[in-house]
Amino acid sequence: MASAQELTRRAAIADYAVLGEPTEPDLEGLVQVAATVCGVPTAVINIIDDRYQHQVATVGFAAAMCSRDDSMCAIVFENPGHVVVHDAREDTRFAANPFVTGQLANVRFYASSPLVTPSGVPIGTLCVFDDVVGELSPEASRALELLAHQVVDVLELRRAARTLSRTNAELTNFAGQVSHDLRNPLNAVSGFIEVAADDPELAHAPHAAEALARAESAVLRMDSMIVDLLDYAKTGGAIASRPDVDLERVVRAVADDLDAALRESHGRLVCDASVVVTGDETLLQALLQNLIANAVKFSAVAGIEPFIEVSAQRVSGGWRVSVDDNGPGVPVEDRERVFVAMERGDRTAPGIGLGLATCRRIVEAHGGLIGIEESYLGGASFWFVLPDAA
């Protein structure tokens, strides 16, 4: 029966999904560097589970698999640090090993460094060897250790990429379901608005007719945003960028959508951004709507009548857009954290902490940057930079 340590190792190896797969070019490059630095013709990355040694990248010979009982690396890989053996025939740990005796090979010089996961689980070795006796300088020994760390870094990056890919697929499926669930009631609202707009009594109620027209416009914009944001999720970040997006027009559309919130909070939104930028208009509207809605929400929670100003300034290679407010601001220590999904600065305010994470994703999809500073209005200044088309 496998021990707890072996079960943990087995799970860690499975998480990297490297066994039975084509050799990763980055891993192949690392074993080539290891062989060159150590001055030997052969090197290998071994992954060792409770039964076998798996050679996942090699130089100087073809990758294979052997029993763990026959493995030289299995004898030492769980011990920290390096193992450097001048002549394996003279080392009691290896003298009878089939890779030394000639049964499987004729290893003489042998050196290895363990592969240890970030959580401290040893899963194998980066190993160099030769069929003649040899030495390893302190500099080469240190290089072998560093390369072993690089091997684990590559495995971690592969694992993270797979996790991200799964997460994106799950988010896409979720976005599809949410868009379906949102569009159904939205279509119903649109139908009710049309029925109300056809009422002949509206001829005697111009304010009601105007309100219905604005409501219908908001419904159409929301429907368009849902469709486009779903497309964005499906394409994994591809954007329909154009070099002629009127930023002031985008802000006006956001102001219309947030009209009720601004009226309720006695807020005021001004725009000094009569510029044309490069970007995806729908995503930029979602970005600004998040930032402006946040300014309104947090100012109102603090008992302040919101005043928000959107401005744009030409910078080298693009435009810097700022959304300033007179609210409570964001503490310096929270200015990075609030851009992480599900993180919130003020937990008394409504929301689940996805708005600013979405903002960062949109800005980064445009190749830009986003951040927070203190505002001259006394609150927060959320800024983002949109690069030019070039």
Number of helices: 10
Please name the fourth-level CATH homologous superfamily of the largest domain. GAF domain
Using the 3D structure, state the CATH architecture of the largest domain: 2-Layer Sandwich
Mean pLDDT: 84
Order of helices and strands: HHEEEHEHEEHHEHHEEHEEHEE
Please report which band the strand proportion falls in: under 5%, 5-15%, 15-25%, 25-35%, 35-45% or over 45%: 15-25%
The beta-strand count equals: 13
Specify the CATH class of the largest domain.
Alpha Beta
The CATH topology of the largest domain is given as: Beta-Lactamase
Query: How many structural units, i.e. domains?
Result: 2
Sketch the major β-sheet.
6 strands, antiparallel
Distance between the termini: 62 Å
Uncertain segments: none
Alpha-carbon Rg, integer: 31 Å
Shape: elongated
Q: Oligomeric state of the chains?
A: single chain
Description:
The chain is of the alpha+beta class. It folds into two domains: 4-163, GAF domain (Beta-Lactamase); 239-390, 2-Layer Sandwich (Heat Shock Protein 90), CATH 3.30.565.10. It has helices spanning 4-16, 25-38, 73-76, 98-101, 138-197, 206-234, 247-257, 259-264, 281-301, 355-365, and strands at 42-48, 52-59, 65-67, 83-85, 109-116, 122-130, 242-246, 268-272, 276-279, 307-315, 318-325, 369-374, 380-387. A six-stranded antiparallel sheet has the order 3-2-1-6-5-4. Strands 8-10-11-13-12 form a five-stranded mixed sheet. It has a two-stranded antiparallel ribbon with strand order 7-9. It is elongated, with a radius of gyration of 31 Å. The N and C termini lie far apart (62 Å). The model has no long low-confidence stretch (mean pLDDT 84).
